[in-house]
Amino acid sequence: SMRRRAEACIVTEGGHIEHFL
What pTM does this model have? Predict the structure, then answer.
């Protein structure tokens, strides 16, 4: 949503959020 470099994030089954560039 925010203006950043190509950033991606995924939500694991446990409910945690992991983002990687």
Answer: 0.24
